[in-house]
Amino acid sequence: MARISGHFPAFSATTFLFLLLVVTHLRQCSGGGHDYHDALRKSILFFEGQRSGKLPPDQRVRWRRDSALHDGATAGVDLRGGYYDAGDNVKFGFPMAFTITMLSWSIIDFGRNMGGELGNAIKAVKWGTNYLLKATAKDGLVYVQVGDPLSDHNCWERPEDMDTSRMAYKIDANHPGSDVAGETAAALAAASIVFRSRDPAYSRLLLNRAVKVFEFADRHRGAYSSSLHYAVCPFYCDVNGYQDELLWGAAWLHKASRRREYREYIVKNEVVLRAGDTINEFGWDNKHAGINVLLSKVCLSTLPLFS
To answer: Which of 249, 288, 291, 297 might form a disulfide with 186, Cβ 3.0–4.6 angstroms?
Structure first.
């Protein structure tokens, strides 16, 4: 697999996909000659090019082959699957989970505009959630990364051929990571909505796991950049802090479960979790703008919108 020059992580493609679907929706009213369907198809193909593990028979990116089939073995767990981080061969859990959250949100809001690509988008979500379920299979810990980024960045090779370290990194009660755990909970909750009518049993599994992961994130507060600084920095340090991921996770759990407790959690914690922080950006590190949009869409009339 050819490396991509510069740092272009997988979540960037998802954010682009989300914006593209907005444009596609607007195009119904404004017209235009651009081939948005082809752009959407290629955006989703990006994910198939980033797949790790045993590839499925319907894999459309045919030049890719099975890779990283022993991920997690040194830790006694199965961490095969998931997505590589763009041109890297590392699986970074933080941006990967954000990718799944955003792709799920795209389907929830704009799936009706995807046409024949909807099925491929849903498969892209499930490829990610299947991995996140493995990473959260044991209560009280979350596997948040596979691969050593320093050795990976110093050795440019296809994932099918890689011989760099596949060490698995985790967070637990003594090494917290509320940011990555909160985002993982958000991803699982958002995806549960995608599968609610399509696969109810799988949807319930995702939502129940999201609840457990969020409880872990909230009970053991702290940034994974502190716990795993040597492994995640300077690549995906949480510069913005873990507080927004707790609010973000609670917002998605409220939308997915419709439980009042998550609405009350946001109201109770909006000050201590800095809900009023600046919202001039939205991405894998800063979720405040997304929290505002999400809460406004679920019409919580008595819940203050953050500014």
So the answer is: 249
Angstrom CA distances, 157 to 55, 164, 261, stand at 19, 9, 48
Give me the residues paired with residue 170 across strands.
Answer: 143
Question: CA 194 to CA 23: how far, in whole Å?
Answer: 21
Report the number of secondary-structure helices (H) and strands (E) in the chain. Answer: 12, 3
Helix/strand/coil for 244: helix
Span 112-168, pLDDT tens digits = 888 899 999 999 999 999 999 999 999 999 999 999 888 888 888 899 999 888 999
What's the rounded Cα separation, in Å, for the pair 123 and 29?
29
CA 186 from centroid of its chain's CA atoms: 8
CA 69 → CA 65, 146, 230, distances in Å? 11, 12, 25
Contact between 250 and 259 (Cβ < 8 Å) = no
Residue length of the chain: 307
pTM: 0.87
